[in-house]
Design a protein that fits this description.
The N terminus and C terminus are likely disordered. By secondary structure, this protein is an all-alpha fold. It is globular. The protein has 24 helices and no strands. Helix 16 runs antiparallel to helix 17. Pfam families: Sugar_tr (PF00083). InterPro entries: MFS_dom, MFS_STP/MST-like_plant, MFS_sugar_transport-like, MFS_trans_sf, STP/PLT_plant, Sugar/inositol_transpt, Sugar_transporter_CS. This is Sugar transport protein 14-like.
């Protein structure tokens, strides 16, 4: 649970002494914190549905509405190609990446709980502004406030869950964030399906309902305990010990508490955590956790499907209602996948899910590209059989992503950073994730228009690269205490050149960890 470090030879030697029970206090705390994922998920699910509603388009994007009506039942790659329309979606993620740096300071100095509350307040105000919008400026400002909320919650919640969880169930606990995200997507899809029939203000209801998870998150956050790691980091040792005993369900927490204090002492010596993140000994965490995994998570193409699934299905010739219903099916597949991952990730490990799902995702993207190359974009109604086939294989893709890159893209970075760079590292994760999320959101529809089926081949190429990256460079982290993660880099065929004990001036005892 404590962060790994490089300055204390005794650290990492006490993990076998950790004791814990799964208490109701621990479970309730994690469930409340995980609500933060529903903010992200609800927005992912709601955006594409709202931007496909006629009442919304007529007010804010009349040109897109006119073009849509001209090709109502025909396939057309360029039906929704409008940069202002995509800015409605992507502006949130540009705002989130900016807020991630402010969230890092608050998370480190004031605690994980403070960032969670800030995220809830900002998201609530943004949702109110969006629901009341009368012009594009109000929409974009509201989206930016939503983005600030997501930046704070996505920075703090994965850290909170990883720090509260015992090592043996850390994977499942951390994935409560992804499960909450998936449930948010699913609920948003059904909300869109219902509000699309309410004219002319159904879209306002879709956007306004976002206040509900924000309100739950704020009220629940008021009663959340701070993580023991954060309390130790703030110098509140007695309170930290009390919380640790309560969440572990035992008073025998001497070993774990000692590691927390050791990690905190190392963290206090770091005055500039972002600069420290760039040091040679932290190269694996920087490359894998802060840069590659959050970028690859978006380059898989999954969020394009989540953003624009109603738009995609309408572009494929589905009617408006059928498009929203089809996107609800994909949202359901995402929830099922998250449950599968939660159940088995601590048994089969992170690498197995990454690699197996990667192969599936490559095959699906190639199949989509071939199908569209043969059947789509000719200005004719798409055959029903082809439409059903596309929905099925997109669901297969969602199932693969939802048990691998979706949850593990947040889990792995949250568990590999040492405490001294953890808040800075998680801010980098959120920042890189949001940069690529916003770029994909802004560029996908125009890419679909100009690259046509080639955009799915491009995503297939990215998935090949990221699967190879995982195979060669990511060690298995399942059931490894966070304070022992650095030992994995010591033993890895590539990363040991950056993290060798001799180079970093520490003495390590031989362990039985396997890479």
């Amino acid at each position: 649970m404590a962060g790994g470090g490089f300055d204390d030879k005794s650290r990492g030697a006490r993990a076998h002494l950790y004791e814990y029970k799964i208490t109701s206090y621990f479970v309730c705390s994690c469930i409340v914190a995980a609500i933060g994922g529903s903010l992200f998920g609800y927005d992912l699910g709601i955006s594409g549905g709202v931007t496909s509603m006629d009442d919304f388009l007529k007010i804010f994007f009349p040109e897109v509405y006119k073009r849509k009506q001209e090709h109502l039942k025909e396939t057309d790659y360029c039906k929704y190609d409008n940069q202002i329309l995509t800015l409605f979606t992507s502006s949130l993620y540009f705002a989130a990446l900016i807020s991630a740096f402010g969230a890092s300071h608050i998370t480190r100095k004031k605690g994980r709980k403070a960032s969670i509350l800030c995220g809830a307040i900002s998201f609530f105000v943004g949702a109110v502004l969006n629901a009341a919008a009368t012009n594009i400026a109000m929409l974009i400002i509201g989206r930016c406030l939503l983005g600030f909320g997501i930046g704070f919650s996505n920075q703090a919640v994965p850290l909170y869950l990883s720090e509260m969880a015992p090592a043996k169930v850390r994977g499942a606990v951390n994935q409560l964030f992804q499960l909450s995200t998936c449930l948010g997507v699913l609920i948003a899809n059904f909300v869109n399906y219902g509000t699309a029939k309410i004219h002319p203000w159904g879209w306002r209801l879709s956007l306004g309902i976002a206040t509900i998870p924000a309100l739950f998150m704020f009220i629940g956050g008021l009663f959340l305990p701070e993580t023991p790691n954060s309390l130790v980091e703030q110098g509140k040792l007695e309170q930290a010990r009390q919380v640790l005993e309560k969440v572990r369900g035992t008073t025998r927490v001497d070993a774990e508490f000692a590691d927390l204090v050791d990690a905190s002492n190392a963290a206090r010596a770091i005055k500039h955590p972002f600069r420290n993140l760039l040091s040679r000994k932290n190269r694996p965490q920087l490359v894998i956790g802060a840069l590659a995994i959050p970028a690859f998570q978006q380059l898989s193409g999954m969020n394009s499907i989540l953003f624009y699934s109603p738009v995609i299905f309408q572009s494929l010739g589905f009617g408006s209602g059928a498009a929203l219903y089809s996107s609800a099916i994909t949202g359901g597949a995402l929830v099922v996948a998250a449950l599968i991952s939660m159940t088995f990730v601590d048994k089969f490990g992170r690498r197995a899910f990454f690699l197996e799902a990667g192969v599936e995702m490559i095959c699906v993207m190639v199949a989509v590209a071939i199908t569209l190359a043969l059947e789509f974009g000719q200005g004719v109604i798409l055959p029903k059989g082809i439409g059903i086939f596309l929905v099925i294989i997109i669901c297969i893709f969602v199932l693969a992503y939802g048990r691998s890159w979706g949850p593990l893209g947040w889990l792995v970075p949250s568990e590999i950073f040492p405490l001294e760079t953890r808040s800075a590292g998680q801010s980098m994760v959120v920042c890189v994730n949001m940069i690529f999320t916003s770029l994909i959101a802004q560029c996908f529809l125009v890419s679909l228009c100009h690259l046509r089926y080639g955009v799915f081949l491009l995503f297939a190429g990215f998935i090949i690269i990221m699967t190879c990256f995982i195979y060669f460079l990511l060690p298995e982290t399942k059931q490894v205490p966070i304070e022992e993660i650095y030992l994995l880099w010591e033993k890895h065929w590539f990363w040991k050149r950056y993290c060798s004990s001799e180079e970093n001036g520490i003495e390590l005892k031989n362990g039985d960890l396997k890479v």
